[in-house]
Design a protein that fits this description.
The chain has a domain at 2-59. The protein contains 2 helices and 3 strands. It has helices at 25-41, 79-85, and strands spanning 2-13, 16-17, 49-59.
Length: 99
Amino acid sequence: MAETTETLFTVARGKDALTGLRPTARAAKSDLSGIETAMRTAGLEPDVHIATVTRTTTVSDPEPYVEQPAAAVDEPVPAEVEQEQKPNEDAEPKKTGRR
């Protein structure tokens, strides 16, 4: 198994992330600027900051893929599926709104 750990950046308010995870602090600073501007426009005092998070990814060892055989064509179709597929001959034709 292979495991990787990376540090990513986000804009947070308290312990809540407000933006997606960004690969660089520079990208998070851009998000921060936009959020601070929006908060000031709304009459709020910005209380947001750049935060780091650690993401750990574990990838398992490769295992051979075995394709499952397709269902046989001559298998009986369940009655409820067969009825769903039959058109209702007594139904009125649909109106499309076109003349």
